[in-house]
Amino acid sequence: xxxxxxxxxxxxxxxxxxxxxxxxxxxxxxxxxxxxxxxxxxxxxxxxxxxxxxxxxxxxxxxxxxxxxxxxxxxxxxxxxxxxxxxxxxxxxxxxxxxxxxxxxxxxxxxxxxxxxxxxxxxxxxxxxxxxxxxxxxxxxxxxxxxxxxxxxxxxxxxxxxxxxxxxxxxxxxxxxxxxxxxxxxxxxxxxxxxxxxxxxxxxxxxxxxxxxxxxxxxxxxxxxxxxxxxxxxxxxxxxxxxxxxxxxxxxxxxxxxxxxxxxxxxxxxxxxxxxxxxxxxxxxxxxxxxxxxxxxxxxxxxxxxxxxxxxxxxxxxxxxxxxxxxxxxxxxx
Length: 334
Ligand code: SAM
Ligand code: SF4
Known about the structure:
Layout: E1 20-24, H1 52-62, E2 69-73, H2 83-91, E3 98-103, H3 108-118, E4 122-126, H4 132-139, H5 144-157, E5 162-168, H6 173-187, E6 190-195, H7 212-222, E7 226-228, E8 238-243, E9 249-253, E10 266-269, E11 274-276, E12 285-286, H8 288-293, H9 297-309, H10 329-332
Parallel strand pairs: 1-2, 1-10, 2-3, 3-4, 4-5, 5-6, 6-9
Antiparallel strand pairs: 7-8, 8-9, 10-11, 11-12
Helix pairs in contact: 1-2, 2-3, 3-5, 6-7
The chain binds S-adenosylmethionine (SAM) and iron/sulfur cluster.
């Protein structure tokens, strides 16, 4: 175990304290969601990816600095061989309180139980459409039935809640709000809409975002009345609501219409070991040579602190100053 003292929190110049680390375990994917990545893409070679030992070493360095919440993502994380081993390695690191996973669900039916048994407790499955044609149009692949089987397998394995993430895109989401909501209510899932962000390969424009208030209006019209949850946290990325008829919860991540940059507590580690202090960061710090070369933990910890200290105010998507990062979402880790 790496001995690092917990001295002061991972803070930036705006006073934001960081405890949340998203780790991409691969840039590969078995879907090609149009809002996330191009159809043709060159993936990293296996040797370029951080090994499980290198990822674990980074978490061991980050945990004493105040990182206590981890989410594994990608690319499609379930394409990384033997992911439950990584989960086991991370959950036992002192200080780590919460390990989650975001997946497209295609391979989840086979992996839900081993992941749960390894100690994973939180799972988000991305599913934007229940209509097979629309699913194919968005993902450029088939697989809706496998995703649904994966979601149900996650419930059976014991994950509670299982959250469903749906990207909110005008022209698509209007048709899917009610079917997704009914599906979630029927199976005891927590549905969360994420406003479409400019981080994919296709041309983004504001007009393509189906906004939080529109989703809420539609849910109330077509499904059931909603009220903010009792433990509503205005600083949390997801605005959370509960159905008045007891039908469970719905969340909306309004990254465009209600950016949560000023309460952001996240950093990201890409599959090849680049540290990013924002999803939309234009600069990153290459930690792989240090993790691979056996650099002193204090040196890596200092780079993490410096990178966070230098974090900008926010993504500025709603201004003319916004610059889209060169990496698309699958290569960052959503
Ligand atoms: N492959 C996994 C999945 O799809 O869940 C994990 C990686 S994916 C990049 C993580 C999340 O980012 C997914 O929920 C996906 O819908 C979301 N995402 C990707 N591109 C997005 C965009 N342009 N705007 C909003 N969310 C996006
Ligand atoms: Fe793959 Fe997830 Fe991106 Fe879709 S959103 S292409 S499933 S990484």
